[in-house]
Every structure is written in structure tokens, then in C-alpha cells.
Design a protein that fits this description.
mainly alpha, 2 strands, two-stranded antiparallel sheet, 1% strand, 19 helices
């Protein structure tokens, strides 16, 4: 019996495939889908290459500056040249050097980064670390509009989440209603095969063709794009393919469900487009607005101003302390005011920088905590929309998600403390000069990435398949009546 059903399903699918070959609208939809995928792959690869070039430029500039300081300190130690008269030009001054040759901290690229290149633009590819507060190096290299960065570029995630459902709905909105309107539904009902088998074969071909084109184009494009720079990520590609199939199955099942309501094609199209608008545009917009209203976070510009105001306040507090000292001790303070040596001034600078760093980092930590709360709420609300869930899962697979960047920030915080300890606590605070050997012992940044523990791709695939099964079961029961 099962073999008979399979044979009938195959016959129905082959017949539908012959009909689709003669339909120019089908070829137009497939051509547009393929063009969008190719454009997304090219655009994503261009973004990834631009970020890699930016990191390389920063690393080259760092290496050149470090080599110049090494040459200068060797000349000073050998007596060929005199030490500079200004401390900030002296390669032996630990406080000055700590803010001049900060290393380039970069998050290593991953093979699937081009899939969600737009999401990756929200985070800087690399930063030039300094001994001061994090606001002194986190935001100095970024000159683009944050709103533009958050919108992202045209990438593969956009095509798979937004465009692919429209193509599927365009080919399946009149799956049953079209047969009724053309008067061929009774012929299908008179065939030996059940209506569920006949229209199941039609649905399989109409949905399977664009999904198959998508899978072939995506996997081939990623393989070609990563051939020269990365090993082919087979496991990630398999997960991405399963996610695409599961997401497409939901939209196909939704189209089948709407067709099972026995309405005309125009109403089916209107219903499906309305569902697309709700799931892809309205619910994500509502979720974003709800997250921002529940856990409001100030704009990035305000955070930068607040962190820099903290540094200015630290300098003012130091000046106020000196003023109180002069008011309290009077003549004694006036006699010693002009006798402050360079070491004392350096200790004052270190104290101000330390206080400013603590205050500015506290401002950034509060902002990051609010943003993380927004992200957690948005992740829970993503289960209301298949588009949000699919987008989050694909971004997670691509390695451009917030979780991976938080790992990078944690490694950056640890290295920032190591950098300050090496220059400030161990040398500048003790008035110890840097030597040529110290330049060979400078801390080096490295990030140990943990294996991805997120179950979001698997969870999303299961949710899509369960929803598709529920919708498809109603479709089958409706055709059986």
C-alpha cells in the first residue's frame, strides 16, 4: 500500500513538473530568487573582505609604530641620540607608551560570516586597545551611522527570511483554488489516487523547486566564497540547509492550510501576504519596540558622552582636591606648589586615569546590561514569529551573533586589565622606565572561543517542522472530506 501511494505521489509530482516547465511565471520567480541569492553572496563576501582588510591595515599600522619605538629606544640606550624632552615622546615612559602602541584586538572571522554579513556590521571588526577607559578605544574607529549599521547590508539572511517565503507563496497560493476556478478539480477527484496524494505531489514540486534552487545556490556559493580562505564548514552548512528546509516547510504548510479553507485565489493571496506581513514585519517590529520600552537603554552617543564626562569629572575632582589643600594649608601649599616634580605629576595622571577608567567602565557596563536584557527578551519573543526565529538561528550559525561578540568583549576586558597592569601598575606607578627587553615581553591579545552551545538552530528547525505538520494535517483532512 505504501509503495502504491509513493508511486501515485511520484506520478502527480512528475505531471506537475511538466506543467510548471511551460509556465513563464515559474521561471521568472526562480530567476529572481537566484539573482537575489547571488547578489547576497557577492555583497556578503565584499563586506567580509572589507572587514578583513580593515583589520590588516590596523595590524600593519600597529607593527610599524611598534618598530619605530623599538628603533628609538635602542638608539637611546646605546647613546646615539638623546632622550626626548617631552614625556609623551619618550619610548621609555610606560604611561605614554601604554596609550600609543595599543595592540589590535580582532575577532577571528568564521567561514559562514558572509551569510549574516549585515548583522556583523553592528560590531567593530577590531579595536586598537589603550590603557585608558574602554570608551577611549571602543568607539574611535567607527565613523558610520549606528542606525545604518543596525539595518545592515543586503545579505543571505535577508533573502532566506524575507524573499524565499514570498517566492514560495507566489507558487502555491492557488494550489487548490486554481484547480477549482479552472474546472479541473473534478478531474483530479475522479483519478484513482486520493486528492491528498495528488495535491501533495503538486505541493512537493511547487515548493521543492525553489527550495532546491536555494539549497544548491547557497551551498555552492558558500563553498566557492570560502574555498581560498577557510576550510569548508560542512557541519554548519548541513545545519543551515536543515534550517532552510524547515523554515520553507512552515510557509508551504501555511499555503496548504489557506488553500484548504476552500476560498478563491485572490482571497488566498491576500491572506498569505497578510500572514507574511504579520510574521515578517509587524511582530518583529512589535518585539523590538516592546524590548526597548521594557528595558530602555540610552543611545550610543549618550553613552559615549557620559563615559567621557566621567573622565572630565575625575580631573575636576583632582583639581578640587588640590584647591581644598591650598585653602587648608595656605602658605605651606604655596611653597610646595612650584616644587612638584615630573614623578609626582605622572602619579597624578595615573590616579586621574584610574578613577576615570572605573567611572567610564561603570557607565558602559550599565548600558551593556540593559542591551543584554533587551536581547534576552527579544529572544523569548522570537518564538512568536518564524521569521524572527529563523533570522536569529541563521545569525547564530554565521558566527555574527551577540553571544560570540560578548565572548570577544570578555576576552578584551581581561586583556585590558593585563595591559594596564604591565604598563601602569608594574612600571609607571613605580617610576620604572621601559627597556628594549620589555618591548619583547608585551602582552599579546588572544581569544579562546568556546564551542557554540546554542541550541537555537535545532530548536527553530523543530518548531518549524511541528508547525508545518499541524498545518499540513488539516490540509490533508480537508482534501479527504
Amino acid at each position: 500500500m505504501r509503495l502504491k501511494h509513493f508511486s501515485e505521489l511520484r506520478v502527480a509530482a512528475c505531471f506537475e513538473l511538466k506543467l510548471m516547465r511551460r509556465d513563464p511565471a515559474v521561471w521568472l520567480v526562480l530567476a529572481l530568487l537566484l539573482a537575489a541569492i547571488v547578489q547576497a553572496l557577492v555583497s556578503g563576501r565584499a563586506v567580509v573582505e572589507a572587514r578583513e582588510r580593515a583589520v590588516a591595515v590596523m595590524q600593519d599600522a600597529e607593527a610599524k609604530q611598534r618598530a619605530e619605538l623599538v628603533t628609538q629606544i635602542e638608539a637611546i640606550e646605546s647613546g646615539r641620540i638623546a632622550a626626548p624632552d617631552r614625556f609623551y615622546r619618550d619610548p621609555r615612559n610606560a604611561f605614554a607608551v601604554s596609550n600609543r602602541i595599543g595592540p589590535t584586538a580582532a575577532l577571528p572571522p568564521v567561514p559562514l560570516a558572509l551569510v549574516a554579513a549585515g548583522a556583523g556590521e553592528a560590531f567593530p571588526p577590531a579595536v586598537r586597545l589603550r590603557a585608558g577607559s574602554k570608551d577611549s578605544f571602543l568607539f574611535t574607529e567607527e565613523i558610520n551611522n549606528p542606525a545604518h549599521l543596525s539595518a545592515g547590508t543586503f545579505d543571505l539572511v535577508f533573502v532566506l527570511v524575507f524573499v524565499l517565503p514570498l517566492c514560495l507563496l507566489a507558487l502555491t497560493y492557488n494550489l487548490v483554488s486554481g484547480e477549482r476556478e479552472q474546472g479541473t478539480f473534478s478531474l483530479n477527484a475522479a483519478s484513482p489516487a486520493s486528492l491528498a496524494t495528488v495535491f501533495g505531489g503538486k505541493l512537493l514540486v511547487r515548493g521543492g523547486l525553489p527550495v532546491g534552487v536555494t539549497l544548491v545556490a547557497v551551498n555552492a556559493g558558500i563553498a566557492l566564497a570560502t574555498y581560498s580562505s577557510h576550510a569548508l564548514p560542512l557541519v554548519s552548512l548541513i545545519w543551515l540547509s536543515l534550517l532552510v528546509v524547515a523554515y520553507a516547510s512552515f510557509w508551504l504548510a501555511l499555503a496548504a492550510f489557506v488553500n484548504a479553507l476552500r476560498r478563491d485565489s485572490a482571497l488566498n493571496a491576500l491572506t498569505l501576504v497578510g500572514a507574511w506581513l504579520v510574521f515578517v514585519l509587524l511582530i518583529p517590529a512589535f518585539s523590538t519596540a516592546l524590548s526597548e520600552a521594557t528595558y530602555p537603554a540610552p543611545p550610543r552617543a549618550e553613552v559615549i558622552l557620559a563615559s567621557r564626562s566621567a573622565a572630565i569629572d575625575a580631573e575636576r575632582d583632582r583639581a578640587a582636591e588640590e584647591a581644598r589643600y591650598r585653602d587648608e594649608y595656605g602658605e605651606t601649599a604655596a611653597k610646595t606648589a612650584g616644587k612638584v616634580d615630573e614623578r609626582t605629576r605622572m602619579l597624578q595622571r595615573i590616579a586621574v586615569q584610574t578613577i576615570a577608567t572605573e567611572r567610564a567602565d561603570a557607565v558602559l557596563a550599565r548600558h551593556d546590561a540593559r542591551v543584554d536584557e533587551q536581547a534576552r527578551l527579544a529572544a523569548r519573543l522570537a518564538f512568536l514569529s518564524p521569521a524572527m526565529l529563523a533570522e536569529a538561528a541563521m545569525i547564530d550559525l554565521s558566527g555574527n551573533g551577540r553571544a560570540r561578540y560578548r565572548q570577544f568583549e570578555a576576552a578584551l576586558d581581561t586583556f585590558h586589565r593585563e595591559w594596564r597592569d604591565f604598563f601602569i601598575a608594574e612600571r609607571a606607578a613605580r617610576s620604572l622606565p621601559l627597556t628594549r627587553a620589555d618591548y619583547d615581553r608585551l602582552p599579546r591579545f588572544s581569544v579562546r572561543e568556546k564551542a557554540p552551545e546554542s541550541l537555537l538552530p535545532a530548536t527553530a528547525a523543530v518548531v518549524f517542522l511541528l508547525a508545518a505538520l499541524m498545518l499540513a494535517s488539516y490540509y490533508v483532512r480537508s482534501l479527504g472530506r
